[in-house]
């Protein structure tokens, strides 16, 4: 991966892009894609479609990553000026308490507040904090004052800054799926025999909405979905599966809650990985869903497969992942695309 790729990890991770309002990450991705693609379009949903013409092949190849992240939106302002929240995507309220956030396109800083422990009853201390009790404090004192800075429907994102932890380990937010976005930009720097469509979708975290319009439009022959997935190699009960594991290579999905991998692409993936000594692992358990779920059943069908970078603590304010796993995912995808 290039030095530019490393810089993009930080830039994309830090960007704001809650599902339904992916304004900042879309701008950054468009700027990068325009450097390498032959054409770049943004459709009515907000998806980015970048095309790199092939050298003479007749097929259509597609790589897909979603640009959006889980977060919140403002649903109300109470009389004391605190913001009421609605969840956007799957977020456990336990990871939200006392976290820093940014609000709206002006990135107003705030904190998700909860009653401090010395003001809680013994009964309250023994129960998880319900999401409905979480409010955002932006430092104002009245509803009218807050309304000068925040509007209903404004996005709210976790305020987490990217950091390198070691030579290979990284920490940041939205690794699901900004690491996939980094991979696709790296692939756009190459040219393949067949036309290559690099697609960055919106609203994946809210029922795969962006991808639902892509399949029929492009009518690709093959699609590789580049994702982030939850690593489970952290302390827990001995009888609980610890796969996927960070450092063991990209996760290849055979089946999840929304799709089955194409047998042709699965066989080719294993062959390419083994011949080139690229580490990989199969995703376990086969739960969740990705853009592959709607792409493979669009039109007359698309042959799809998912390669995911494992990351600990996804859908939370911070994740940890390995640059080596991302590099191996890019290498595997590149060689598979060249083999089609």
Automatic annotation (TrEMBL):
A GO biological-process term: proteolysis
Lyase as UniProt keyword: no
Keywords: Aminopeptidase, Hydrolase, Metal-binding, Protease
Keyword Ion transport belongs to the record: no
CC cofactor note: Binds 2 divalent metal cations per subunit.
Binding of Zn(2+) 2, residues: 176, 205, 315
List of catalytic residues: 204 (proton acceptor)
Family designation: Belongs to the peptidase M42 family.
Listed name of the protein: M42 family peptidase
Native source organism of the sequence: candidate division TA06 bacterium
